[in-house]
Amino acid sequence: MSFFAWTWPSPLFFTLVVPSIHEVLQLDEPGLVLALQRGDERVFTAVMDLYSGSLLRLAMSFVPSRAIAEEVVQETWLGVLEGIGRFEGRSSFKTWLFRILTNRAKTRGTRERRYEPFGLSGPDSDGEDGPSLEDSLFVTEGSGKGHWADPPQGWEPDTPERALLSKECRTAIEEAIKGLPDNQRQVITLRDVEGVGAEEVCNILSISETNQRVLLHRARTKVRGVLDPYVRGEK
User: Fold this and answer.
1) Is 3-111 in CATH node 1.10.1740.10?
2) Domain ranges of the chain
3) Which tens digits make up the pLDDT trace of 111-125?
């Protein structure tokens, strides 16, 4: 029976039948897609809860305001409802979802005169065309290229002072990402904030692997410039 076919269900009913985000994550992808294709409103609601924040972060790198980004996210979910029946699994559900978002965000961004196509033909908007930290700080070859040569050690906020520092550091990183050129912001948001793989990012943003790699390196370098004083104990 459809979820919304019930009338005045008790609180216990919702506790028993509405899946949590954790429960949705336990579904394998074919099971998740099948539930959505069958019109399971419970799963759809949980998927919205799981991904709406991620979609909003990405949308805000294409359009000039949060209000417009929220509209793009709403349009994305409508697109999911309209298109899930045709989903054939040629990409992961997450890649397909982000692809719907970027297509709508690009269209809306162009309309709002914000979005510009990807490209590496010129310098960044801040006038820089390369790393802002010494190359010796990073791995320069192999699969780890672009990562810290001596990775910063994590810390637990075991004291009020360290908790405040951790919060300050996170805020600084978030602000650094917001200040990146849009194309760098989109790539680092997908790769480092949302944990999307390189191949999927290329698919979502319709860019080459080389373009993705260079944009990510530039973005990480600038954000690491903000992070460096914290991990070195200078703040």
Assistant:
1) yes
2) 3-111, 135-231
3) 876 555 555 444 444
Phi and psi torsions of 31, nearest 5°: -65, -40
Pick from 97, 96, 115, 119: which is nearest to 106 by CA? 115
Nearest to 212 by CA among 177, 184, 189, 193: 184
Which ranges constitute the DSSP H helices of 38-92?
A: 41-59, 66-83
CATH tag, 135-231: 1.10.10.10
CA distance 161 to 228: 18
Phi, psi of 138 (to 5 degrees): -120, 155
What are the CA-CA distances from residue 175 to residues 31, 63, 169, 170, 172 (Å)? 38, 17, 10, 9, 5
Claim: this prediction has a pTM higher than 0.90: no
pLDDT in tens, 3-30: 333 333 333 333 334 456 666 667 788 9
